[in-house]
Amino acid sequence: MLRIAFVLLTTLAVFVRNEDNLPGHMQPIGSHRPPEEGIEVLTSVPDPLEFYDKYMAKHTPVLFKGAIAGTPAVTSWNDDEYLSKTFGNLKIGYEIGKKEDRMGNGSSSTFGEFLKRYKTEDIYLVDDMPDGMQQEWMVPRCLLCGGYIEYLNFCFMWFSNGGTMSVLHTDSYENLHCLASGIKEFVLIPAEYSEIIGPEHAGLGYYHIDVERVNMTSHPGMMEVPWYYVRVEPGDCLYLPYNWIHHVSSHGRNLGVNIWWSWFDFIRDKCPEDMSEVPDFLPLAQFQLRPEKQIVSVFVDIAREDGYVYAEDLATVLSMYNYSILHQILERLDPGCDGKMLVSKLTRDEIPQENYNKLKEFVDSLESSNKDGEEAPEGPEELYDGPMEEWPEDKGGEFDWSNGREKFSIGHQVDIGEDDDDIQVPSEEDIVKFHRQYSGKKTSTEHNEL
User: Would strands 62-64 and 40-42 be described as parallel, antiparallel, or unpaired?
Assistant: First the structure.
């Protein structure tokens, strides 16, 4: 018995010593190794084409020092003398708990009420920038032509008394984060290290990592990960590419705004011939945010190597809808696409804005129906009455979805204005063949391949 106890204690001691030797174990994120050489820092903002070619197209972060220095948000947005008096009645949302946990502990109030509380309470503002403030928030020249404005999705405002800490996460959008006051520190990790850090990110967009005490035994991949440190100061703007992994902490009275846009291919004819004509900045209020275009980022992310998104692939991100509805989603964007859509049509601005609006109306109507208790089938299992392993054997042949396929759904018909007598309900064998034909194909997230 004593010998067994000695062996157990020795093993435990070795384990403890090994844990102690893990670089960065139970220490703040970034403690596992020194940061890489800093990202590029510019003292002037490039024109939109240069910004696209050198940074966005290459997925390379860059810091623009003083990009919005001298603008109203930097010089005039103090709490009592200006913000409270000018915007105090605006409705805003805030999070409870400065250390982010993605648990959705949020509430809302007027901006004026928030300004009275945020210095002494464990809260921070995170919400769409209210319309009333957008006239005074300036967009720097790097985004002012070439397509950026047409693809703007959201403008988020972050406001705290410092001490906030984000989870380690990614965003599915291109991001320009500008700071009006305070200091923000970023830990940046290239997107290709996502799977090394941990598999949970694939379904969540963030990692179950305590950024103050990183457990290297549960996330050993972190020890292999290079990282970059970026300090953002008032007036600075940081470009953070789509899917780069990052953690953010704030210090002091902290007011920042990030502008998110979908990936696109630069559109030269949307700029003047002489780029010097592009102004240093323009008010955000001059542009229309288009959240419906966030679908572009979704499509880029799930496109196959041939550059297409297939209706079947949409099931990975829109699992609440059956295949009939997924086909209709593509048809709203690109009528006649027959169940597959070339993503470059989206990224090269070849889809009319009217089609995005029609898609939004369609999805809104689906969500409204679901709220009323009408639930659509969730996946391929619903197309056959039985578990997937009991599907019949493939007997060859291909199913032609071109005739009436938009109408086929389980449990109800979708009226698209045709005679119901034309509906062709596919056989079980046809469905099996259709599913097998398109399942399991490799996808690509490399934008430059599209």
Answer: parallel
Q: Any idea what the CATH number is for the domain that residue 214 is in?
A: 2.60.120.650
DSSP one-letter code for 230: E
What one-letter code names the amino acid at 374?
Answer: E
The residue behind tokens 């984060």 is 177
User: Are 269 and 336 in the same domain?
Assistant: no
* Secondary structure of 386-445 as H, E, C letters: CCHHHCCCCCCCCCCCCCCHHHCCCCCCCCCCCCHHHCCCCCHHHHHHHHHHHCCCCECC
288-293 CB contacts, 8 Å cutoff, 24+ apart: 288/152, 289/152, 289/153, 289/154, 289/155, 290/150, 290/151, 290/152, 290/153, 290/353, 290/356, 291/153, 291/154, 292/356, 292/357, 292/359, 292/360, 293/150, 293/151, 293/152, 293/153, 293/262, 293/356
Structural domain tally of the chain?
Answer: 2
Q: Are residues 136 and 280 in the same domain?
A: yes
Pair 46, 62: CB distance under 8 Å = no
Cβ count within 10 A of residue 33: 14
Of 116, 120, 74, nearest in space to 98 by CA: 120
The pLDDT tens digits for 6-24 are: 444 434 333 444 556 899 9
Domain's final residue, options 229, 262, 289:
289
- From 289, 317, 333, give the residue that closes a domain: 289
**Domain membership flag for residue 374:** yes
CA distance 361 to 445: 28
> What is the end-to-end Cα distance of the chain in Å, rounded?
66
**337 and 234 together in one domain:** no
Contact (CB, 8 A) for 290 and 356: yes
Domain assignment present for residue 8? The answer is no
Q: φ, ψ for residue 361 (rounded to 5)?
A: -60, -40
339 Ramachandran zone, left/alpha/beta (phi>0; psi -120 to 50): left
Structure tokens at 35: 């940061």
- The structure's pTM equals 0.79
Q: Residue 32 belongs to what domain range?
A: 23-289
Which of 295-304, 311-320, 344-353 is predicted with the least confidence, judged by mean pLDDT? 311-320
pLDDT at 20: 63
Q: Give the mean pLDDT of the chain.
A: 82
Q: How confident is the model at residue 371 (pLDDT cuts 50, 70, 90)?
A: low
